[in-house]
Specification:
The protein is an alpha+beta fold and about 110 residues long. The protein is about 25% helix and about 40% strand. The protein has three helices and six strands; from the N terminus they run αββααββββ. The radius of gyration is 14 Å and the shape is globular.
Length: about 110
């Protein structure tokens, strides 16, 4: 019998498909036991800086999609960065929550 959804990426893709695009308008998403570069988190939230300076340039749904679709973000000091699909993201993980600081379209 073939095992499906055993890889972290497979589970993540299935989760994103199950959530649907209509939830992308919400400000935060709650995910249980998902890992990104060995950082466990239960929530992704925008920082005040993202909301004030970057939300109009990069929609929240795209930010979440990029974070969840990236296996190994680069570590930059105490923060992480992702460059993918013409976007740049900077975020930090504190107490199980990922806070998105910057999101720019390159």
């Amino acid at each position: 019998m073939e095992k499906r959804g055993t890889e972290k990426g497979d589970c993540l893709i299935g989760l994103l498909q199950a959530i649907g695009k209509n939830l992308y308008s919400q400000l935060d998403y709650i995910f249980i036991a998902i890992t990104a570069s060995l950082v466990f988190f239960t929530r992704i939230a925008p920082s005040r800086h993202y909301l004030e300076e970057h939300a109009r340039d990069v929609p929240w749904g795209k930010v979440v999609e990029i974070i969840l679709g990236t296996k190994n973000p680069r570590k930059k000091g105490g923060k992480f960065e992702i460059e993918r699909d013409g976007y740049y993201l900077l975020f930090e993980a504190k107490k199980g929550i990922i806070y998105v600081i910057n999101a720019k379209k390159e």
